[in-house]
Design a protein that fits this description.
Elements: H1 3-10, H2 23-36, E1 45-48, H3 56-62, E2 68-71, H4 75-85, H5 88-94, E3 97-99, E4 113-118, H6 127-140, E5 141-151, H7 183-192, E6 196-202, E7 209-214
Parallel strand pairs: 1-2, 1-4, 2-3, 4-5
Antiparallel strand pairs: 5-7, 6-7
């Protein structure tokens, strides 16, 4: 059974935080962005908000054992990913690691990470939560690490989000929704932390803008 069919079978009457349409394509596209940023099989990856392992499926298959880490506070979504999306033999062989803390605490795995991934997380996260993720990236990643992020830019049609709470479905909410952030604000937050942010293209799956954030100016 193809991955798309597998997800359709488990998500027919339930919402898992991601669209049913293009599930397989969207996960594979995230994996492609990671490869273009320099991902190798021995890279350590931290997938923030890994959910049902839409991207995790591809990353776990590709990475060496023990190299994939995921944070997902919604235990039901994570259990679906680990039991119904990724094959049992792959889970056993690749030994991915997971944590369910809701505070974006990236220190829980106790090692330096090569790649942070946050797809469609900043489309729900409030600015204080984004600041926490940036601080975690500085603290918990290697000097040459990259942070791959997708977000929705604010503008005349979509206001810059000024709330201080997560917006959208989560382990605590079933109410859907997305928010936008100002690129100027994101760049200023990166500048304050000695980070450089690069604009990448929008993805084909859902039209979100990608950013690549690094601790230095070399890509």
């Amino acid at each position: 059974m193809r991955l798309q069919q597998k997800f359709e079978a488990v998500a027919r009457n339930r919402f898992f935080g991601v669209p049913l349409e293009n599930f397989e394509f969207a996960g594979r596209e995230q994996f492609t962005y990671m490869l273009q940023a320099g991902l190798n099989p021995d890279s350590k990856v931290l997938d923030i908000g890994c959910g049902v392992l839409r991207a995790g499926y591809w990353l776990i298959h590709f990475l060496d054992p023990g190299c994939y880490c995921g944070i997902e506070p919604h235990k039901g979504r994570l259990e679906t990913g680990t039991h119904s999306i990724v094959e049992p033999e792959v889970m056993q062989c690749k030994a991915p690691r997971f944590d369910t803390n809701p505070n974006f605490d990236t220190s829980v795995f106790g090692e330096k990470i090569d790649f942070f991934l946050a797809y469609s997380i900043w489309t729900h996260a409030a600015k204080p939560q984004i600041q926490t993720m940036l601080d975690g990236f500085i603290r918990d990643s290697n000097d040459s690490a990259a942070f791959l992020v997708s977000y929705l830019p604010s503008g005349w049609r979509h206001a810059d989000y000024t709330g201080d709470q997560w917006f959208g479905t989560s382990h605590e909410s079933d109410v859907p929704g997305t928010i936008s952030h100002s690129f100027r604000w994101i760049r200023a937050e990166c500048d304050q932390r000695g980070l450089t942010v690069y604009k990448l293209r929008r993805d084909k799956a859902h039209g979100q803008r990608w950013l690549e954030i690094r601790k230095n100016s070399k890509i």
